[in-house]
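Input record, target 12 of the design panel.
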């Protein structure tokens, strides 16, 4: 019998076992029907609660980090508007966007009168809105009236008219006039848009209500309706109001007051109203509470229960007789032959089980094919090893051939500079010398890579101070051409026992990387100090933080794929550090990437 036939038989048997399992599931489902519905509701609540908080926390992390930027924008807007109150806000927005290079950050500007009414804005949907309805905004407007300070929101708010997360700043512009500036990062997604999309795509409808109260009334809003409104005044007119003296509030207000779940069932659907948070969330997201209303279509559960009844009682009687048969069929014709093949593969030895090799089914063919492939693979490995050695010799010969022309280019460049009658060609000579030095550095890297495992690089006592100063001098022209400067803070008379070539590879690769990746017109700082028995060498450069510090020293890894290179430099540095027990680490502080190497004397 072919293996495929055995597998088909196995699939059929497993199908019967699955029916048995599903029968047990049906009986369990019959008893746990109500509990399952409740779990469905609880899972929805937990899912959306996590999604909402995760979405909000992500937005808060991004926008709160831009508080200082928002304050700077606000100060600039104040200065411009105080000099020209009639300035067009859209023009002001363009100026500020350009000045602060906002990119994906969207900016909106609002002018507010003494009655908290927005009378001029770059966000038309807020025109005419009374900010006095927003608790935090009213507090800040009152405070800035007293002390004229700029106040920035303590939390990120969700604008229900466009479903975006925003951060606002408030200040007194002049007597009876206030300025509000808001920012949002368009790269931040919003959970609300996905909820609206889900409502359009599924039968299980979800609504969210935000609730607040004053001395006389409770108010609640359908949060997902805001995006369909033309302005905030229209949205807030749609709120539901209940006087506190009234008895028998609806399920939404009752859920807010009691923090209990209310459920009503109608036919094949169930409506659940549940408090979304366990306690007041104003201090976190600026709303008193959120109530979730979930309309659940339970028809599929009822239909599934009926469907199970028709299927399982017919199929369950066919299961028991096949259990023993399944065990022996799989054990003798499938499991044991595979174990023999896997054991041979793990040991990298040919299959020697004659019973298996005599089989004419697929497993027997696999065993014989494996033996043939293993023999071929051993021959291929031998051939590849020979080719690798030949390739290594070719690279070594090529590197050797580069040495003489490179030396000639360097010597002729020096002669050109010495014989020049004026300084008009200095810039071009610097470009040539920079390229020569870069090529020399790459040549020395490649020479070390191809020879370090065949040549013994013996350590000697060296002056780290002198070698470091020499390498800084070597890279000065390269840095100059790249519009960068190297600043060395080198303590004198620091010695260490290390091979000079390996020390230069360590230093050169760090300086080369700093020159390649550092910000233009920013200093590259190299510090060398000794304290007791620890020598600390560090390379600091202004640039974006390194994303994958743990992979940085791996072979062939490049942080920035746009910067071409071999990806071998820092891996070489890692090998040298391990050879001499040099501790190495990468830090990011004060907008600088800092590579630190500690030598133990």
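The sequence produced for target 12 reads:
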């Amino acid at each position: 019998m072919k293996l495929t036939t055995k597998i088909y038989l196995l699939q059929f048997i497993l199908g019967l076992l699955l029916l048995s399992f599903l029968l047990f599931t049906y009986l369990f489902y019959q008893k746990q029907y109500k509990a399952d519905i409740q779990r469905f509701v609880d899972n929805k609540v937990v899912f959306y609660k996590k999604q909402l908080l995760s979405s909000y926390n992500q937005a808060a992390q991004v926008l709160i980090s831009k508080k200082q930027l928002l304050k700077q924008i606000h100060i600039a807007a104040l200065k411009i508007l105080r000099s020209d109150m009639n300035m067009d806000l859209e023009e002001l927005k363009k100026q500020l966007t350009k000045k602060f290079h906002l990119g994906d950050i969207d900016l909106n500007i609002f002018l507010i009168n003494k009655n908290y009414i927005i009378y001029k804005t770059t966000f038309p949907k807020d025109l005419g809105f009374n900010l006095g309805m927003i608790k935090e905004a009213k507090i800040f407007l009152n405070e800035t009236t007293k002390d004229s300070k700029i106040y920035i929101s303590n939390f990120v708010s969700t604008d229900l008219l466009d479903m975006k997360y925003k951060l606002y700043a408030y200040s007194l512009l002049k007597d009876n006039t206030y300025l509000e500036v808001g920012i949002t990062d368009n790269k931040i997604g919003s959970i609300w848009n996905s909820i609206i999309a889900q409502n359009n795509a599924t039968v299980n409808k979800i609504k969210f209500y935000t609730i607040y109260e004053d001395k006389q009334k409770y108010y609640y809003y359908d949060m997902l309706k805001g995006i369909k409104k033309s302005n905030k005044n229209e949205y807030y007119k749609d709120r539901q109001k209940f006087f506190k003296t009234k008895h028998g509030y609806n399920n939404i207000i009752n859920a807010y007051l009691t923090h209990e779940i209310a459920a009503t069932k109608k036919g094949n659907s169930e409506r659940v109203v549940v408090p979304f948070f366990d306690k007041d969330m104003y201090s976190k997201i600026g709303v008193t509470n959120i109530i979730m209303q979930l309309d659940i279509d339970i028809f599929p559960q009822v239909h599934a229960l009926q469907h199970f009844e028709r299927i399982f009682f017919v199929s369950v009687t066919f299961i028991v007789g096949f259990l023993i048969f399944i065990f022996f069929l799989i054990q003798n014709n499938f499991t044991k032959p595979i174990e023999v093949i896997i054991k041979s593969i793990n040991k990298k030895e040919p299959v020697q089980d004659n019973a298996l090799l005599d089989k004419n089914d697929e497993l027997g063919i696999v065993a014989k094919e494996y033996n043939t492939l293993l023999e071929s693979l051993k021959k291929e490995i031998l051939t590849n090893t020979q080719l690798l050695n030949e390739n290594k010799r070719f690279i070594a010969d090529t590197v050797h051939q580069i040495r003489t022309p490179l030396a000639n280019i360097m010597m002729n460049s020096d002669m050109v500079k010495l014989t020049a009658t004026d300084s008009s060609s200095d810039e071009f000579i610097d470009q040539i010398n920079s390229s020569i030095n870069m090529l020399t550095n790459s040549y020395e890297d490649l020479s070390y890579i191809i020879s370090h495992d065949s040549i013994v690089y013996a350590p000697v006592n060296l002056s780290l101070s002198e070698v470091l100063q020499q390498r800084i001098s070597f890279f000065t022209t390269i840095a100059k051409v790249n519009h960068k400067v190297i600043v060395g803070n080198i303590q004198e008379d620091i010695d260490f026992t290390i091979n000079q070539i390996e020390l230069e590879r360590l230093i050169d690769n760090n300086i080369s990387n700093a020159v390649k990746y550092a910000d233009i017109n920013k200093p590259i700082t190299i510090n060398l100090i000794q304290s007791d028995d620890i020598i600390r060498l560090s390379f600091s450069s202004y640039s974006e933080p390194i994303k994958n510090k743990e992979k940085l020293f791996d072979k062939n890894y490049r942080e920035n794929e746009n910067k071409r290179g071999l990806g071998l430099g820092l891996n070489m540095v890692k090998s040298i550090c391990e050879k001499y027990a040099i501790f190495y680490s990468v830090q990011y502080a004060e907008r600088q990437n800092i590579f630190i190497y500690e030598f133990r004397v």
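DSSP finds 17 helices and 19 strands in the chain.
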